[in-house]
Amino acid sequence: MLILMEQGATTEQIAKVCERVQEIGCTPHEIPGAIRTAIGITGNKGPLAPEAFHGLDGVAECVPVSKPYKLVSREVKPDATIVEVRGEKIGDGSMTVIAGPCSVESRDQIFRTAEAVAACGAKFLRGGAFKPRTSPYAFQGMKEEGLRLLEEVGREFDLRIVTEVKDTGTLDAVAEVADVLQIGARNMQNFSLLEAAGRLHKPILLKRGMSATLQELFMAAEYVLALRNYNVILCERGIRTFETMTRNTFDLSAVVMIKHHTHLPVIADPSHGVGIDWAVAPLAKAAIVAGADGVMVEVHPDPPNALSDGQQSLTFDGFKKLMGDLSDLATWQALHD
Amino acid sequence: MLILMEQGATTEQIAKVCERVQEIGCTPHEIPGAIRTAIGITGNKGPLAPEAFHGLDGVAECVPVSKPYKLVSREVKPDATIVEVRGEKIGDGSMTVIAGPCSVESRDQIFRTAEAVAACGAKFLRGGAFKPRTSPYAFQGMKEEGLRLLEEVGREFDLRIVTEVKDTGTLDAVAEVADVLQIGARNMQNFSLLEAAGRLHKPILLKRGMSATLQELFMAAEYVLALRNYNVILCERGIRTFETMTRNTFDLSAVVMIKHHTHLPVIADPSHGVGIDWAVAPLAKAAIVAGADGVMVEVHPDPPNALSDGQQSLTFDGFKKLMGDLSDLATWQALHD
Amino acid sequence: MLILMEQGATTEQIAKVCERVQEIGCTPHEIPGAIRTAIGITGNKGPLAPEAFHGLDGVAECVPVSKPYKLVSREVKPDATIVEVRGEKIGDGSMTVIAGPCSVESRDQIFRTAEAVAACGAKFLRGGAFKPRTSPYAFQGMKEEGLRLLEEVGREFDLRIVTEVKDTGTLDAVAEVADVLQIGARNMQNFSLLEAAGRLHKPILLKRGMSATLQELFMAAEYVLALRNYNVILCERGIRTFETMTRNTFDLSAVVMIKHHTHLPVIADPSHGVGIDWAVAPLAKAAIVAGADGVMVEVHPDPPNALSDGQQSLTFDGFKKLMGDLSDLATWQALHD
Amino acid sequence: MLILMEQGATTEQIAKVCERVQEIGCTPHEIPGAIRTAIGITGNKGPLAPEAFHGLDGVAECVPVSKPYKLVSREVKPDATIVEVRGEKIGDGSMTVIAGPCSVESRDQIFRTAEAVAACGAKFLRGGAFKPRTSPYAFQGMKEEGLRLLEEVGREFDLRIVTEVKDTGTLDAVAEVADVLQIGARNMQNFSLLEAAGRLHKPILLKRGMSATLQELFMAAEYVLALRNYNVILCERGIRTFETMTRNTFDLSAVVMIKHHTHLPVIADPSHGVGIDWAVAPLAKAAIVAGADGVMVEVHPDPPNALSDGQQSLTFDGFKKLMGDLSDLATWQALHD
To answer: Which residue in chain A has the smallest CA separation from C244?
Structure first.
């Protein structure tokens, strides 16, 4: 249930309502950003009786919430959430571009890439230092050394760092460097990691699991919001289907559904979504006109010799061309939405 | 294998090559539309020896074809196929819009819809007269009466009729009225129907099966092209995945793959792809910037009371707004592709 | 809705009820095989009022039917349907084995196989004469010549012939030879073919589509039962999943669900289900203890040189061993079910 | 690559080979349990030259390994691995039954269940203390208190405890009580957890992910074996498909594939596989005749009032009947395999 307070409700009135929620064994959540304050309730078994709150001062309305996801829902928080990362906003109607290599491979590689993406106007650099890999024998990333390079290169080119955290053991080290903590597709339902990362109150980029339904994605995000951390960005990166001509099936309708059903920003990752370099640009462009708040794309100085994901990485030239097109379309989209 | 003739090869030289192909037990296919003539070869078991053709006059090159689909492949025919339907071209870089109700329901319904979509600039009217339905007890369409209405309304508003043919028994009746024969998703691998429809040499709109891979779609189209009918338009209409928030999963990368791997035009059907009215427009717009040759959308005068697919049908107003946006984006796309 | 008549209800009383059903615009279906007569009603839009039948003589009870499939449902007909094929019963608790090659390839091949499977005790021979193939260039079967061979070999070894009908154009020819008409997975929702085949009142073996849900399978069978043809046998033959180590994913729970939710017999086809010769026997054995009424397996005199499906065909020796095991397990199962 | 030593090769000869492997930058793995010693090599990039080992004493043969999974492969270790758990063997040809509730709910519940399953002859008790749940608001298990109850009940009824570990933070606590550490489907690719659990050298029951391919399952197991822990039991528990009539699709062919391609024991979990109480027994029986080393089934004193998974739990009576049937079939299977 959601309790809507009257405009101008006082702090005391709100506190009173929260107390009552706790008295009946539930957890109150003040919902940020609305014109008037709303209080979400979680932890109840079965529906609550609105009568419990009717007598309290400042209460305007008690609204039942129909979905299993509550705090992520637009029903509960109609205003779009804007995640701010060192001065850059995601979800405010501007277009966010996160670009960089799959993995940090060397000083030279990450510096050259950072320079190129910054020159094209991107404000966010992606790059993995700890890589979860299907095979125990595959390249697992440069680890701590990779983090050091990310830290340095981010400062050098004023780029915000988006990098994956793959377990609780390395969370603190990654969080020192990351401006945005990426939780990968395989970890979407690693609830312990979600909780540990969520407690840091850093922005989290949560990737949809390879075969996850959107409701499961929303419930995973709910784990973070339930900790009162609203800095969550959802990411569509392709799902597993029978198709073999593409690496995954980029589910663009997910972008449309996320914007409709939740208040969280959404980033599209067509690089993983399709897995083929020449198909990234058309899908990135499509994501922007479908309403995505931005895109994440893989860029590499020398794709054929990348240690991972080379076949889906753009060259610097390809990225530059794409940035121009995205910028055009984002402008058009802002005028016509 | 593909035999490329020299520019200026004579009819006699081409005929000679075709004879030789038949002598070795295979079928020659002259490939239309290239600057110079190419001859595809099908029916061979295993690879052919190019030597069989080296001595023949006018032969420039013998190229092995690496894919199981041959005549639909860009490898074999690099030029895009343009399908002409009573003066309107599909696949020539213009944007095609096919609009109308799921089913013809009444004279009033189809006339009002046709008037509205024509007024917005669409040149193609969709509408089913024979409907394949999962349940034997569901509405199966107005059948012959529906065909009569389509014939009349098409003349009245100068719209080309796109309507589904569901079996060989009704093929002739449908083909009399249809400008484009639609083969539905459930019939994508109904090879007998593909062959019967293909022999009529009318344009065919072939929808991807609900769980078909793209290669299976291409092989299905190959059944028609093997009959020397190149008038095939492919259609992405969503595939079945685990997602339940949408009716199907609209696979936009299919559009990109079709344009890359085949020479056939591709139409996106976001109405079936997502199945929710408010999600149709963003996906239709996305399809255009991803390179689709056009879109097919469901439009109904009174969606809540439609006999089928009401929840995914646009109102007249919604369609009008969409047409403006698509036209903008198609213009942009033509300039930037 | 289902109307249960009293035991001993007269023919006139039953006829009266059927008349009343038609008066309200619906179709009555006398359900065969029950101790007392039941009358199913189809064609209604929305639920029916039981009051319409309360006054009629001989009516014991009016039961609402909760599922979209009606005549195939156990709710409507609790007795198991037994399909009789020239003296052999399928679904009566005995175990049915249908064996033979994927395709009829030659006189020698089909005669040798028939002899071998008959010697092992099988009463049904499978073999395709008309083969629907993904590629237009692949072997499409021996067609009419194949039918002639099946006719001859069936007589010679007293085997009932199970062979696929792939379209309405060849239905009559196939039906002349087939004791059981097989409708393949790709045609499960070819409703025109289902209706045409259903009207012949021959037994039909209906294979589950590659990505069909069980409800869709039941609805497809409903098309045949709605024509008052109850001679339908369902067949689980594997579904499409992400797994690539097997050809399909053999869904054994489908067998359990079919027996529970419908009254129709079910045959398991592990050959297509798994697609690997050495994996066929364990899955065939599993199907019997899970409650299947029988199995269909591919057997070939020389699997490595089969024109189709060689990799999933048993040798004669392999089949002989399997028959012994199945017979053991069927005996155990009959005692313990 | 795999190096097979001659029978009677000395410890020194083996050590020499291992040294050489390390010299070329790879990791040697002595493979346990074979008549003669084999040494697996991992960590190589690309294929190795067998010449590097030809001159060494005691080397019989160098065999290339064709699969990405190496140590789990039958190619590398033809002998079946037998996992011993406090005197009980899994994978030795006997049939293992792991039974108990989804979650430990109370002292009474777990003691009554343990008594019942032990009385029926089961040697392993399952029961979750830490439960990963899709929703942050759902029952997450009794946690430490649940572990205490499991410890006590295991001692009381001489049952080996199989319980899930859901993160590295609770691993040590769980491992103190668990005889077998269960890694759940959602954590199959939680490589950090696999490594942490693997290092404890306790038996691990690794469940297949909901949409994991078998190769991905094998690669996940490879993470544990690469730590020289061969005590891994694989578990098929159903995969996600389009079917909605069952909770998951129980993939019985996975059992057959695991036995063929790996040397690890396999347990079938039809309770999660199908999710419906009355369907568990037929699938459990099927798993045994298909070659599974055992089954894991959910049993609860009062299924309708279970806090989780009640709809798929057997009653004590149902379990007793099943145990009798499984024992019959396991005896038959042992004689006929």
So the answer is: A242
User: Same domain for C58 and C118?
Assistant: no
Which of C15, C33, C63 is at the close of a domain? C63
Nearest residue on chain A to C241, alpha-carbon basis: A242
CATH number of the domain encompassing residue D26: 3.30.70.1140
Assign residue D245 the CATH number of its domain: 3.20.20.70
List CB contacts of D2: < 8 A, sequence separation 6 or more. D31, D38, D39, D40, D41, D62, D63, D64, D65, D70, D75, D76
Note whether C12 and C123 are same-domain residues.
no
**What pLDDT was estimated at residue B7?**
83
Residue D66 has pLDDT above 80, yes or no: no
Q: What is the DSSP letter of A168?
A: G
- Does any domain span residue B73? no
Domain presence at residue B39: yes
Domain assignment present for residue D230? The answer is: yes
Instruction: Look at residue B49 and tell me whether its pLDDT is greater than 90.
Output: no
B282: nearest CB among A249, A274, A291 = A291
pLDDT given at position A43: 81
Cross-chain residue pair D167–A166, CB shorter than 8 Å: no
Is residue A66 less than 8 Å (CB to CB) from chain B? no
* Angle CA B153–B159–B162, to nearest 5: 90
At C237 the pLDDT is 98
B219:C135 CB<8 A: yes
Same domain, D43 and D113: no
**Residue in D29, D76, D137 to test binding to A, most A beta-carbons within 10 Å:** D137
Query: Backbone phi, then psi, for A93, in 5-degree steps?
Result: 105, -15
The answer to whether C166 and C130 are in contact (CB under 8 A) is yes
**Whole-number Cα distances in Å, A204 to A83, A148, A225, A273, D27:** 9, 20, 11, 20, 37
Q: What's the complex ipTM?
A: 0.93
* Chain C residues within an 8 Å CB radius of D282: 255-256, 289-291
On whether residue A187 sits in a domain, the answer given is: yes
Same domain? For A166 and A216 the reply is: yes
- Percent pLDDT > 70 in chain D is 99
Q: Establish if A286 touches chain B: CB-CB under 8 angstroms.
A: yes
Judged by CB atoms within 8 Å, which residues 207-246 of D form the interface with C?
Answer: 211, 213-215, 239, 241-246
Which of C134, C211, C242 to probe by mutation at the A interface, max A CB count within 10 Å? C242
Number of domains in chain A: 2
Judged by DSSP in three states, B102 sits in: coil
Q: What is the mean pLDDT of residues C225-237?
A: 96
Which one of B32, B63, B94 terminates a domain? Answer: B63
Q: Does C137 touch chain A (CB under 8 A)?
A: no
Mean of the per-residue pLDDT values of chain B: 94
* Dist. CA C49–CA B249, nearest whole Å: 39
Contact yes or no for A240 and C242 at CB 8 A? yes
Q: How many CB pairs under 8 A join A and B?
A: 117
Q: Please give the pLDDT value at position C322.
A: 98
**Whether residue B237 is found in the same domain as residue B104:** yes
Burial of B136 (0-12, 13-18, 19+ CB in 10 A): buried
For D119-174, the pLDDT digits (tens) are 999 999 999 999 999 988 888 999 999 999 999 999 999 999 999 999 999 999 99
Integer Cα distance of C122 and D285 in angstroms: 25
Q: Are D123 and D96 in contact (CB under 8 A)?
A: yes
User: Residue D41: which domain range?
Assistant: 2-63
Are the Cβ atoms of C242 and D325 closer than 8 angstroms? no
The whole-number pLDDT of residue B33 equals: 62
Q: Convert the pLDDT of each residue in D108-134 to its tens digit.
A: 999 999 999 999 999 999 999 999 999
* D232 and D147, same domain (yes or no): yes
Same domain for C49 and C97? no
- The answer to whether residues C107 and C229 belong to one domain is yes
Residue of chain B whose Cα is closest to the Cα of D242: B242
Bridge partners of residue C207, in order along the sequence: C235
Taking only the tens place, the pLDDT of each residue in B178-219 is: 999 999 999 999 999 999 999 999 999 999 999 999 999 999
pTM for the predicted model, two decimal places: 0.93
